[in-house]
Amino acid sequence: MIVAEQKPLEEIRRMIAPYGRVLILGCGTCMTVCDAGGEREVSFLHNALQLAQARSGDVAHTFSEHTLKRQCDPEFLELLTEKTADVDVILSLGCGIGVQAIAERLPDMPVLPGVNTSFMGMTKESGVWDERCAACGDCRLEDTAGICPITRCTKGILNGPCAGVKNGKCEANKDMDCAWILIYQRLERLQQLDKMRRYYPPRNYRTIPRPRRIMSKVDTVVGEGDG
Amino acid sequence: MANSLFEEKLNSNDFIVTTEVGPPKSVDVSEMVHHIELLKDKVDAINITDHQSSVMRFPSIGGCLIVKELGGEPILQMTCRDRNRLALQAELLLAYSRNIVNVLCLTGDSVDVGDHKEAKPVFDLDSVQLLKMIRTLESGTDMGGNELKVAPKFCIGATVHPEADFIEPQLIKFDKKVAAGAQFLQTQGIFDVASLRRFMQYASQFDVKILAGIIVLSSAGMAKYMNNNVPGIIVSQAVIDELAAVEKGKGLQKGIEIAARLIKTVKEENLCHGVHIMAVGNENIVPDILEAAGLVNVSG
After folding, report:
1. Which residues pair with B277 in a beta bridge?
2. pTM of the entire structure?
3. Is ipTM beyond 0.90?
4. Domains assigned to chain A
5. Beta carbons of A184 and B159 less than 8 Å apart
6. Which of A155, B41, B150, B201 is most deeply buried (CB count within 10 A of its CB)?
7. What is the chain A residue with the closest CA to B113?
């Protein structure tokens, strides 16, 4: 899933300053799971913004709130039209994709990002999320025992550990495991160390010409006979 | 035929001595020039570091040009941290055109340990891929498969970490570097001769020259700082204790003594093919180390 962190309240207050009626819009999928922008966070932010406004003696804004099932899906964005009839700006707590999907859907409506989209990852424990995939478009997890060196090695190198590893930790962050030590240990356990001994050529960055698009392929199944 | 004086030395059976000079964070290169002049006739080659510890400085290629101007033998340290494959190849063409042919191929320290922590880390290639890329250039084509009108010829090396706490993955990487064409390996700092001995039992099966890295420490505090902050350096407790035991102001003298002792052991026991002395900011004391180790006028 996509993991994000809500922006600091002061930054959000600075962004909404030019606008009167603000719709705080949550997202019911990834942003809900990572506690950054689901229904609960929308409600908390609504209260926090109202409180901050009251304290500052400023009465510039009125707030409303709503949470879509998914902001990145046209099907759910259709429901947005009625919610935005009398708002001046949407403060989206969706990821960067949600913000852009809204911008494409509503050409005349300003939309602001309420979260910093961080990475693709997984829940490690309650309240802790770890990055696991860099969406490089050229998955090599077969060769690395299911541990991604592109994402989990700070240098994203392909031919084994650098010399900066100490006590199994990364030179860039002493709390972070060296991905290549993890890969070595797991390959050894799986009796596949030959995979680490192979030479891996430089990455092909043409797999990530941004922005990327995937078209669903309708395969013609060539079966036996008339199948 | 050898491409350089250094390669000629590598091909001989002589004990090899290299050292390093770190360029300044300045456009005033007078101190670096002084260090190069001091060392150029006392060692077989001088490495010029490439923004060591990811701290922005005068570039390695610039330092190598100065070594050439002064009649010395440079080793261009080249990391993959700051340049993509176009920039790396272009710089190698520049180096060869100026007769700088000894290249030490490094992945490079993380940007996070340096003084420009917000910079974009490149790492388009890693050290093994850089070695391979140089062999590709020598074959007459660039990485895009396009022909070079005239191909360069280099003498290439890499690094290895015999004192790494997880040694097996480092040995796999060492194998890959040798297979990719490394002719010489300069090790990370050695503090425990036993670990070098163990490593050489493994490495001696390969046709490659190993130069033991000798780091000159000036105090126990410096040793502890390096252990905590400098990638790839693990100073043993025995060395830290030895430095801590001397009276204040005598630390560097002790550091010189330790370095000279290590060099002597390496040479007398014929442990490997030479040494690479890293004085980290104290380049002016390298001649004292050479003298204390009985290595005066090695290149003479």
Report:
1. B19, B214
2. 0.92
3. yes
4. 2-119 (3.40.50), 134-201 (no CATH)
5. no
6. A155
7. A172
